[in-house]
Amino acid sequence: MLANKIHTRFLSAERAARMIMCQGLATSLERMANYLVEDYRRWPEFDKTPRIAAHSVDGVIELMPIADHRLYAFKYVNGHPKNHRLGLSTVMAFGVLADVESGAPTLISELTLTTALRTAAMSAVAARVLARPNCQRMALIGNGAQSEFQAMAFNRLLGIDEFHLFDTDPDATEKLQRNLTRMGLKTCRFDNTHEAVCGCDIVTTATADKTNATILLPDMIEAGMHINAIGGDCPGKTELHRDVLEMGKVFVEYEPQTRIEGELQQMPSEFPVVELWQLLTGQAGGRGGADEVTIFDSVGFALEDYSALRFMRDLAIELGVEEEIALIPDLSDPKNLFGLIAGGVRPVRGKLFTLSDEMGDLSHAA
Amino acid sequence: MLANKIHTRFLSAERAARMIMCQGLATSLERMANYLVEDYRRWPEFDKTPRIAAHSVDGVIELMPIADHRLYAFKYVNGHPKNHRLGLSTVMAFGVLADVESGAPTLISELTLTTALRTAAMSAVAARVLARPNCQRMALIGNGAQSEFQAMAFNRLLGIDEFHLFDTDPDATEKLQRNLTRMGLKTCRFDNTHEAVCGCDIVTTATADKTNATILLPDMIEAGMHINAIGGDCPGKTELHRDVLEMGKVFVEYEPQTRIEGELQQMPSEFPVVELWQLLTGQAGGRGGADEVTIFDSVGFALEDYSALRFMRDLAIELGVEEEIALIPDLSDPKNLFGLIAGGVRPVRGKLFTLSDEMGDLSHAA
């Protein structure tokens, strides 16, 4: 009987961080962007579904599956805005790649850090085709966990080198300014959103409150601006005043999901949008002119995690990271699952008992 | 700043097997059954959804999420009938428990072996309330990976001690007979389904082919039989001739899912069924009399994995199993995710480079 062992590669949070350091953050973001573009151009090949969300009082837990004919991927991710009060991340994630032909999971990886990279890379991919040429200044409204990655991605992929910062939490802005300065990027702090966005080519909103907020108002929007709205990403959580959406052309990742989760949830169902893959394949046009406002209503789609997992898998292979996790039993005969535990089961007068040495062994194991 | 580390307990396939051996298979099945009954009685408290399936040529990959106000659970599971030709299991699974309040994953566990236990325990829970009293003989049609667990569960929970075996693969039957004999259970092999089911109180069908098969035909069904149909569990995969369903009362786990996946997919949408939780809470009646045929059209529902994960978590705690997995980064400041990689990033003339010692370190890591 042929017997094959399942090899499930494992990337811990620490391992993933070291791989990114090893590759360099800027290079990682650029490569991630290339993986994203490659996969978004294959859009029709994917079996897509809006993510499955379990909402509770304090947050949401989501599963985001996607597959083509070779690879299946899913991400587990939560969103709990109050978590930082408990000393926990607002967003925590991990994900899996599996082989479609056999169903075997081949990679399980942290995705908390990796999601931050893929979200930033995706924002930059969209802005690269939507923003005016030769952008220099970007406002970062919301200076939490995602903000450094946005700055790095826009610096690397679009050449942005001046960042206007604002957050209702001054500590967050101070942290961001410290990190960006250390990386040699120019920053400027502002006291409110209005002042921060003034004169910027691109405005990125990445705030965390689970409310229908109006971070950007119509009178803040300037001709030709590109708005990268990434914080409005679940029902009841938006960042733009609805009138802002009518000031420009709106681009989305996957329309059925963004209608439910994005800024779009404020608009009637016939409000026109363009899916990003159409832009990346040349099937739809982007910006109409230098004065047009463009809006990327980004909520994060499963395909981005597919790309991110694919990139991390390839990077792990390149770097020789070979750690595995024994999620799936190693069976000599796949039809004899019972064989896994048969060694510890013996009949005694018609009853079953358990080998006591197993007990002793296990109860002392760490 | 308060900083909390996420502790994610990890149960590998081998660890889970040793825990079951340690507890004893029969006791494990009985305890699992108790967890199932406890959770099924709390049915209205759960946020339920049919599983999300990704179908491909050779199989299916599914995610099965469920939550109450405290615990979120999901299972990843595949179904690839041809896998045994590759030396792989037809069904492989793992699952996660998470804390609803924070979204933190607290357990990741193998579920290939554990699913076999929970499916068998669920079958026995249903049969205990549906089959005639004092059952003695059960037919096992389909002698693959699930069959020993079915036998053990029905032996422990219902006192069944004689098993009639049939499979189109004689090697599978031989393996099952060897395993059951070793456990002190009486078995009898038959050449076809018709002979195997004759005179049995309970008939369990657990076949794997992804087809609309007719394993049980109307002329095989005897008055008072309980049919435990567990192999028909996805669209296009059934085991009972449709007329068999009209010969008795049909019970299901979660009606919206079974209508799509179970034997029920052969019937019109108004065909009456009773959900098992109604039976277990006394809100619905079961068997009408000794001659009535009862049918449990089992497809496997997320709540069963919730119960199974809860049981395995508690058993791990009881046995002092403390292995953890670093899926979620340990952050001193949750808003400073960037801090995870900042150590390896330094500015050099406006560019970023990577610490080469990290590279050396990583590329030699196993």
| Largest interface, chains and sizes | A-B, 115 and 116 residues
Q: Based on the coordinates given, report the CATH architecture of the domain at 132-300 in chain A.
A: 3-Layer(aba) Sandwich
Beta-strand level of the residues of chain A, as a percent range? 15-25%
The level 1 CATH classification of the domain at 132-300 in chain A is: Alpha Beta
CATH superfamily of the domain at 132-300 in chain A: NAD(P)-binding Rossmann-like Domain
Largest sheet of chain A: 8 strands, parallel
Number of helices of chain A: 12
Strand order of the largest sheet of chain A: 9-8-7-10-12-16-14-15
| Helicity level of chain A | 25-40%
Oligomer: homodimer
CA(first)-CA(last) distance of chain A: 35 Å
Q: Quick check: average pLDDT of chain A? A: 90
Given as residue ranges, the uncertain stretches of chain A (5+ residues, pLDDT < 50) are 346-366
**CATH fold name of the domain at 132-300 in chain A, please?**
Rossmann fold
Radius of gyration of chain A: 23 Å
Account of the 3D structure:
The structure is a homodimer of 366-residue chains. With 366 residues, chain A is of the alpha/beta class. Chain A has a domain at 132-300: 3-Layer(aba) Sandwich (Rossmann fold), CATH 3.40.50.720. Chain A has helices at 13-23, 25-40, 112-130, 147-158, 170-182, 193-197, 242-245, 255-261, 276-280, 302-319, 339-342, 356-363; strands spanning 8-11, 52-55, 60-67, 71-79, 93-99, 105-110, 137-141, 162-166, 186-189, 202-205, 212-216, 226-229, 238-240, 248-252, 274-275, 293-297, 324-325, 345-348, 351-354. In chain A, strand 14 (248-252), helix 8 and strand 15 form a beta-alpha-beta unit. The longest helix of chain A has 19 residues, at 112-130. Chain A is globular and about 75 Å long. At the A-B interface, helix 1, strand 3, strand 4, strand 5 and strand 6 of A face helix 1, helix 2, strand 3, strand 4 and strand 5 of B.
